[in-house]
Structures are given as C-alpha cells and as structure tokens.
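Thread: quick sanity check before group meeting

JM: Hey all, I'm pulling together slides for Thursday and realized we never actually wrote out the predicted structure for the chain we discussed last week. Dropping the sequence here so it's in one place. If anyone has concerns about the input, flag it before I start.
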Amino acid sequence: IMSTYGKDRTWPFAQGGEGTFGVITAVWLASITLYKQKKNPISTFVLAVATFLWLMILYFFRDPNRDTSADEGLVVGPGDGEVVEISYEYEDRYLKADIVRISMFLSVLDVHVQRVPIGGVVTAVDHQPGQYLQAFKPEASQVNEYIGMVIDTPYGHVLTKQIAGILARRCVNYMDIGQTVETGQRFGLIRFSSRVDLFLPPTAQLLVTVGDKVTGGITPMATLRGSHDNE
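JM (edit): ok, ran it. Output follows.
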C-alpha cells in the first residue's frame, strides 16, 4: 500500500522556508545589481559569496517527493539522518509508559523535512523551550528546545520530538490537535543541523540499529502490533 502523501506537492522546497528564501534572494539580487553597476574585486567577491549562500539555502530547504509505504503496522522514518541511539526507557511527560526511543541526528546535508512515521490522529503538539546543546548528545532529548507530537494509532500512541541543536534554533510543526494524518505526510521542519526522536511501544519489532542511515518517509523503522493481536 502506498501513502497518498508521498507525492503531494509540486513545490520542491520546504514549507516554512519562504521567509529565508525571500531574504537570501533579495541579498543575491542586490549583489548582482552591485556587480553590474561596478565591476571590481569587491563586488565580484560579494556576488560569489551571495550566490554560494543562495545555492546552499536552496539545497538545505529541498523537499523531494517520495513514495511512502503505508503497510499495516509499518513505521517509517520520520526524517533523514543517522540513528545515534536506541534506548528502552520510561517516557514520563506525554505517554507515561515504557517505550523504545530511536534517536536520529540530522547533519546540515540531510533533508530537514519531517514526515509522519505512521498514520493516526494527532492528540498533542507541544512546544517546549530549552537549551541548544549539540543534538547528538543523549541529554539533548530532555533539555533542548523541542516540539513533541503524539499520534494515536491503531497500535498505540507514538511520539515524535523535533529537537533543536547548537545550530538549529527553530523547529516548525504544521499539525493541529485532532487532525488525521497518514504515513509519510509532511508534518514539520527543523532549520539546520538537529535531531529527531521517535518513541514507540516497547513491543515494537525494530528494523534499524545504531549507525543506520534513515530516509524520511521511506526507511522501515519498526513494525507494530495492533491491540487485537494481543487478545
């Protein structure tokens, strides 16, 4: 089964990046104007730097369409990155239950758009101010600024955290409480290097290990069992 949210947009850049696009494009156009009016080493250098920054912003905010599998019970990657930690623990803020946490670190070269790991109904979207430690540190999940989102699925509650890092100073989440979401649907964005944590029921059958590279909306992360499977 393929999710209808794999190829739902023609605009190739991330929602939420429009302001940054506008500013950097204005700077780039101004540098072109300066270069045309007065060609000298300074204007040439300014144009070269502005062009480099403009291209980097375009690359960073890229948002490719992807074919997402929505097979029953399948959890897909909530974002691009590398699995840096897998931990079985108790989540005491949103789920208040034993969980398995899969943490992924996103470098500045990864796509920074996040996707729904498994379909359901959004029951919480919560922004928590905090610190800006390096995102790959274990304690970043608890003390850094983040947005937590809880999805009620047929297999239990699933939590995602978009976590700010030393460079990532802003997380964006587009979802509303009560909204029905589908596997692979875009739900947010983190600006620059950062981290995404995925919290699943402890009975989840994991399909990734530490060190694996994850592609958002595509990589199978785990399979979950419905409540009827335990009867």
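AS: nice. The CA atoms of residues 130 and 145 lie 4 Å apart. The two ends are 26 Å apart (CA to CA).
JM: adding both to the slides.
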